[in-house]
Q: What sequence folds into this?
């Protein structure tokens, strides 16, 4: 069973993305967080409990506190043996080419969805 994490401050977009994921991956576990800090706290909890990380993370670019471009810096602090299999995908409504380029300039980013 695949495990997905959504981090987006927009409740409606989380619902849309969760519904889409569940449609294409029935039986998958989808966790939703409304802030990057909540997501980071979740990952810290997984490490503390010696649990495996999810396979996929979908991360909004424009969020308060820690935006999607700054999140990978905080994520890098986690042990590599825990994070190496996770695929981090940026999700955004932005059609700006510079956002796409900036996302792919970050080592941790696997994909970009708009």
A:
């Amino acid at each position: 069973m695949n495990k997905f994490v959504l981090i987006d401050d927009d409740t409606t977009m989380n619902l849309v993305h969760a519904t889409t994921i569940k449609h294409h991956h029935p039986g998958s576990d989808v966790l939703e967080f409304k802030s990057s800090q909540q997501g980071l706290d979740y990952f810290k909890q997984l490490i503390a409990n010696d649990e495996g990380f999810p396979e996929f993370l979908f991360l909004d670019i424009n969020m308060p506190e820690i935006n999607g471009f700054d999140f990978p810096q905080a994520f890098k602090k986690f042990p590599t043996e825990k994070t190496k299999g996770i695929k981090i995908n940026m999700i955004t409504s932005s059609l700006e080419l510079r956002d796409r380029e900036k996302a792919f300039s970050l080592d941790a980013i696997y994909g970009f969805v708009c």
Remarks:
- The helical segments are 11-24, 36-48, 71-75, 80-83, 97-105.
- The first strand starts at residue 3 and ends at 7.
